[in-house]
UniProtKB/TrEMBL annotation:
One of its GO terms (molecular function) is nuclease activity. SUPFAM superfamilies: Hypothetical protein TM0160. Signal peptide: none annotated. InterPro entries: BFN_sf, Bi_nuclease_dom. PANTHER family: VON HIPPEL-LINDAU DISEASE TUMOR SUPPRESSOR, VON HIPPEL-LINDAU PROTEIN. This is BFN domain-containing protein. The lineage of its organism: Bacteria, Candidatus Methylomirabilota, Candidatus Methylomirabilia, Candidatus Methylomirabilales, Candidatus Methylomirabilaceae. Residues 2-133 form the BFN domain. Pfam families: BFN_dom.
Length: 161
């Protein structure tokens, strides 16, 4: 089963200082943190903040190519989690035919935001993600879990480049 989610913001992991994209369902019952790289976080943040750049960035270029070819993004799906790595697909509609493309979740999310495509997460991925051990040391794991459980909308703020 798929759960529709939206990007609620980007936060920094308090332990590693790596960016995390936070996906949440509409009822705020389930959240999925996905660790991403700095450049990917910037691409997502630019679109979240509707910052225009003088020249097309990579994800903007890809959107322009899709638009130019008459291809629409039907949806993106975070569909798997293996060895602490998330997997996603971008479903493209090309002349009535759906083509599913393997992608990193960060790229898929950046594309979904630019094309207003819905974001889905497989229910088993959300369940599996709850079991990920963030750190070997219990103290750090507890600190991280407490931080994630207590996230509030104002904690996201504006992501600075």
């Amino acid at each position: 089963m798929l759960i529709k989610m939206t990007v609620r913001g980007i936060a920094l992991d308090p332990i590693t200082n790596m960016p995390i994209v936070i996906l949440k369902d509409p009822e705020d019952r389930r959240a999925l943190p996905i660790w991403v790289g700095i450049f990917e976080a910037n691409a997502i943040a630019l679109e979240l903040e509707k910052v225009s750049t003088p020249r097309p960035m990579t994800h903007d270029l890809l959107k322009n190519i899709l638009d130019g070819l008459g291809i629409t993004v039907q949806q993106i799906t975070v569909n798997d989690l293996k060895e602490n790595t998330f997997y996603a697909t971008i479903d493209l509609n090309y002349n009535g035919r759906v083509v599913s493309i393997d992608a990193r979740p960060s790229d898929a999310i950046a594309i979904a935001l630019r094309t207003n495509a819905p974001i889905f997460v497989a229910e088993n991925v959300v369940a599996q993600a709850k079991n990920i051990e963030v750190s070997e040391e219990k103290e750090e794991t507890d600190k991280w879990k407490e931080w994630l459980e207590n996230l509030k909308p104002e904690d996201f703020g504006k992501y600075k480049m």
